[in-house]
Amino acid sequence: MSTSGTCYLVGAGPGDLGLVTLRAKECIELADVLVYDALSSPELLNWTKAGCEKIYVGKRAKDHSVPQDQINGIIVEKTKAGKNVVRLKGGDPMIFARGGEEAAELAAAGVKFEIVPGISSTIGGPTYAGIPVTHRDHNTQLTIFTGHEDPTKGFTSVDYKQLAQAPGTKVFVMGVARLREICNSFIEHGAAPDTPIALTRWATTPMQKTITGTLSTIADIADAQNFSSPAVAVIGDVVKEREKINWFEKRPLFGKRIVVTRTREQAGELSRALRDLGADVIELPTIRIEGPPDRREFAELVTHAHEYDWLIFTSPNGVERFFDAFFIAYQDARSLGNPRIAAIGEGTAKKIREYRFAVDLIPERFVAEGLIEAFKKEDIENLTMLWVKAAETRDVVGAGLTAMGAIVDNCIAYQTVAETEDPTGARARLVAEGADMITFTSSSTVDHFFDLGIDWPEGCAAASIGPVTSETLRKKGMNPAFEARQHDIPGLVKAIIKYFKQRA
Questions:
Q1: Do 196 and 310 belong together in one domain?
Q2: Does residue 291 lie within any of the structural domains?
Q3: What is the pLDDT of residue 40?
Q4: Which positions of the chain have pLDDT values less than 70?
Q5: What per-residue confidence (pLDDT) applies to 19?
Q6: Packing angle between helix 99-109 and helix 68-80, nearest 10 degrees?
Q7: pLDDT at 358
Q8: Which helix (H) or strand (E) holds 323?
């Protein structure tokens, strides 16, 4: 047996990124080759290491991007070549996902493989729809079956007579196209026509939609609402519990599609907050952070930071770049000496505290002008200040402090450039599906978004984190729907909630 490569058959869960297992994340991070399908959250692609080969083999009913035998060939070939291969499959790889077939192919080929279970949509989907598949008041038995069998068999191996007469809950997947036929088969074999049934499509994602009815009515309801796959169906009295415990679809931003334009590394905080509130988040980074244009000068200024009376930070990026460089030069935090430290806002201050340094000054308004106002309460004449900044930052801070008699040196820690990569296909999705809101957290995100040449989606609002960003939006001919009163990520999230609440 080959020991040079391993193939991991990994369950990606039903869609919610938070439902992916820790082991699945580990496998994706070490993958040399990622073979993934259409039911995997595209955000999973961000976990891959640089240079990982990504192969899309997505499948939908009647539309197979890559035939199964070719998928088998790909994972065997790549593993035999000494690669760590991750075959990423929606839900659980061994529940109606052909994982057993792929594992058998790997075993026959004599290559190493590992199976990583995932949360199946047959369980996770109903849970997010507020439907417990087992409940002491309703059932003591659960049956799971598929509504889409191998079409080459020429017959069905589903025993609808047995299913119809069996007690408890029945769950099936991949059956929307045959919904009327399935429901009629249940009724023909003795199931009560008024048996409750629920269908949930895109379960556990912000696109989730649930319809309910009975075996006799659900097909007409699905047709009327143009309800399509992928969906999971639940048959039984447990469906009645949805009226009481439907939790996921009641979150304040549920059903709202919101675009995050921050850097890929920084998008997480805002994206997590919006997803937790139910939003469908499209991460479309328009900028990325690169090192300073003059690395030698930056390193020298960091090395001499202990000589200054004040260190001034106006962004979390600047904080991170500064202290990463500082701890390369010094092993002891005390080498920083005793300068006082100022931060433009709570987000920047939080990043400073992560390095175990206290912050001496934070303005009431989290903008450059607010920082200058705060320093007017200090005696800074003839004091030396090191301003850690981006290459393209406005000179409001430097000019304002100099006007008050301070001696200011600019420490350019990074530069902001256009993001050119789009591994998750976010741009295409925005063009195809539109959005309810696009968020902007800096002038650079505004400039580089409009440089993409994407038509502004119809009915879409622009959200601004602060006055400088708002002014840049107006220069682009776009009036912001609102401006966050508190100019940081928590403030922006609050403003987004308020905006949609008022519109509702």
A1: no
A2: no
A3: 62
A4: 1-3, 39-40, 59-65, 149-156
A5: 94
A6: 40
A7: 95
A8: helix 316-329
**Inter-residue contact 492 to 481 (CB < 8 Å):** no
Q: Residue 365 sits in a domain of what CATH number?
A: 3.40.50.10090
Q: Do both 349 and 454 map to the same domain?
A: no
Give the range of the structural domain holding residue 62, as residue numbers without chain letter: 6-118
Structure confidence at residue 43 (pLDDT): 81
Helix or strand or coil: residue 114? strand
Q: Check if the beta carbon of residue 262 is closer than 8 Å to that of residue 285.
A: yes
Which structure tokens are listed for 325? 């460089």
Q: Using alpha carbons, select from 441, 446, 386, 381 the residue that is nearest to residue 418.
A: 446
Our count of domains for the chain comes to: 4
CA distance 202 to 209: 7
Provide the 3-class DSSP secondary structure of residue 91: strand
Are 302 and 399 in a shared domain?
Answer: yes
Q: Residue 153's pLDDT is what? A: 53
Q: Decide if 171 contacts 126 (C-beta within 8 A).
A: yes
> What is the model's pLDDT at position 321?
95
Domain boundary among 88, 118, 148: 118
**For 79-133, what is each residue's pLDDT tens digit?**
999 999 999 999 999 998 899 999 999 999 999 999 999 999 999 999 999 999 9
With b meaning 16 or more CB within 10 Å and e meaning fewer, what string describes 146-173? ebebeeeeeeeebebeebbeeebbbbbb
Q: Where are the beta strands (DSSP E) in 117-184?
A: 142-146, 169-173
Residues 265 and 189 in one domain: no
- End-to-end alpha carbon distance in the chain: 61
Percent of the chain as helix, strand, coil, to the nearest 5: 40, 20, 40
DSSP assignments along 12-79, one per residue: -BSS-GGGS-HHHHHHHHH-SEEEE-TTS-GGGGGGSPTT-EEEE--EETTEESS-HHHHHHHHHHHH
Q: How far apart are CA 73 and CA 105, in angstroms?
A: 9
Q: Residues 6 or more apart from 434 whose CB is under 8 A from it?
A: 257, 457, 458, 459, 460
| CB contact at 8 A, 190 and 166 | no
Instruction: Give catalytic residue positions.
Output: 37, 59, 174
442-474 pLDDT, tens digit each = 999 999 999 999 999 999 999 999 999 999 999
With tokens 């040079």, the residue in question is 4
CA atoms within 13 A on the CB side of 376: 9
How do 280-283 and 257-260 pair as beta strands?
A: parallel
* Residue of 142, 240, 233 lying closest to 194 (CA atoms): 240
Quick one: DSSP state of residue 236?
S
Q: Check residue 152 and give its pLDDT.
A: 52
Give Cα 309 distance to the centre of its chain: 41
